[in-house]
Design a protein that fits this description.
The protein has 242 residues and is α/β, with parallel strands linked by helices. It has a single domain, classed as Class I glutamine amidotransferase (GATase) domain (Rossmann fold, 3-Layer(aba) Sandwich), CATH 3.40.50. The protein is 29% helix and 28% strand. The protein has a six-stranded mixed β-sheet, with helices on both faces. The chain has a four-stranded antiparallel β-sheet with strand order 9-8-11-12, covered by helices on one side. α1 packs across α6. The protein is globular and about 45 Å long. The N and C termini lie far apart (46 Å). Bound molecules: glutamine. Glutamine (GLN) binds next to α2 and β9.
Length: 242
């Protein structure tokens, strides 16, 4: 962070942006501007270098082949590692989450190295694809209201000792390992299987990212009636019997 400006980087919109995940960038950008910040948003395509001086980096979900291509390019580029080394905050969804871990199974059925920025390993689930609405309790360490979103993934993810689960699910599969966990995080890097876009459904997670980037404990309140209406509508819908 420098003075009043926030540099927001949306990684590879040409490869990783399913189910409206780009909405996450819109939500962070808008909520930062509503707090008077001057936001410079950079959408970095996969043929461009990842800038290392961003404050918040967002990565979305993707199909299996674009996911492999994105992982190859991000490994070769190295910029995201340098950004995290500089203290940047990273928030990733689904394919992006798997890429941030140590490895995942790619579209060729092979083990593909990830970036190792989150202590998780993803494999291919043997059972049915995890599809549907998700409701969960966010890790108490984050002090955030319940998580709402939807998932659509075949991969499943196991957490290592230095990753904390982002949430525990009441409904849905989350990490898909049967332990009820969903997503993972460490001090500055976050991963989730939730689409929605997840930050539109859970705007206080966006605020949490902003607080970390700004190194503040609180942000000025803003009118969240629209978000609250969306949240309660989706939470009620998820609770209806199928
Ligand atoms: N291809 C990955 C999986 O199925 C991620 C899917 C996604 O990003 N929605 O596990």
């Amino acid at each position: 962070m420098s003075d009043n400006s926030l540099r927001l980087v949306w990684i590879y919109p040409d490869l990783l942006s399913t189910y409206g995940d780009q909405g996450n960038a819109l939500v962070v950008e808008r909520r930062a501007r509503q707090r008077g910040l001057d936001v410079a948003r950079l959408d970095v395509r996969s043929d461009q270098a990842i800038p290392t001086s961003g404050d918040i980096y967002l990565i979305g979900g993707g199909e299996d082949r674009p996911q492999r291509l994105a992982a190859e390019r991000l490994r070769r580029d190295g910029g995201l590692h340098r950004a995290v080394g500089n203290g940047a905050i990273v928030f990733s969804v689904c394919a992006g989450y798997q890429i941030l871990g140590h490895e995942f199974i790619n579209d060729l059925g092979q083990r593909e190295p990830g970036l190792g920025l989150l202590d998780v390993v993803s494999t291919r689930g043997e059972g049915e694809r995890c599809v549907g609405d998700v409701l969960g309790d966010i890790d108490p360490g984050l002090g955030l209201p319940p998580l709402t979103g939807f998932e659509n993934h075949q991969g499943i993810t196991r957490l290592g000792p230095t990753a904390r689960p982002l949430a525990n699910v009441q409904l849905g599969k989350g990490n898909g390992t049967g332990d009820g966990t969903e997503g993972a995080y460490n001090d500055t890097v976050f991963g989730t299987y939730m689409h929605g876009p997840v930050l539109a459904r859970n705007p206080l997670i966006a605020d949490h990212l902003l607080k970390l980037a700004l190194d503040v404990n609180a942000l000025p309140p803003i009118d969240d009636r629209w978000y609250e209406a969306l949240r309660s509508e989706r939470i009620t819908a998820a609770q209806q019997p199928a």
